[in-house]
Amino acid sequence: MLLEPELLPFLKGERFSHAVRASFLNTPLVDRISWLEKKVAGKRVIHVGCVDHLPLIEQKRAQGQWLHARLCAAAQRCTGIDINAEGIRHLKSLGYQDVHACSLLGNDVPDLSEERWDTMVLGEMIEHTDDPVAFLTNLAEAYRGAVESVILTTPNAFSLQNMGNAVRGVEVINSDHRYWFTPYTLAKVLQRAGLEPKELDFVSSSSLHVGGLRSALRRQLQVRCPALRDTLVVEARIA
After folding, report:
1. Domains identified in the chain, total number
2. Are strands 117-123 and 231-238 parallel, antiparallel or unpaired?
């Protein structure tokens, strides 16, 4: 789905409202990794943060839930970047040779701008940055002309878990997170950074095949109310 075209003047700062209204379409429920697989299928991809959490790689591989493996299987080519040098060494020991230990915007990054890439995947990263607009602006400037689009995933501020916690008067959050995002605020950040949102959706953070009554009831709520899903995903063009 996309936010309504009527919101574009507000996203660009051309119009102002203290109560602008953004409506959400009821899109089919899919899990985060399946959504990303479909987006990168047959494409040339840069996967930023490819290691994930080193102690969990083997468990996720066994469950078929390790993102880098799934992206590599779907894409024409998937090159990985991560600041975790130990993790990159482990990935190479597993047979993933097209991976690099470096920072995305650092001087040590391989010269990926010499090639053309369809998209860059940044999973669960934007909420960890001190200044998301500056980060995305620098990214767009560094990779403009080399990368066509950026795909971001981030926890959804409206998620069912967050709403339930709010009713109980608590917030449960990763201690390194700086922000919660909604569809409008995420689109606003992208627009300010010179990125043009192409598609935005709510997805489940976990596999839809997990059993149990509680999981089934949760999925039913997320099917009926997409804004209660765990994760926001957005693809944005580098203008």
Report:
1. 1
2. unpaired
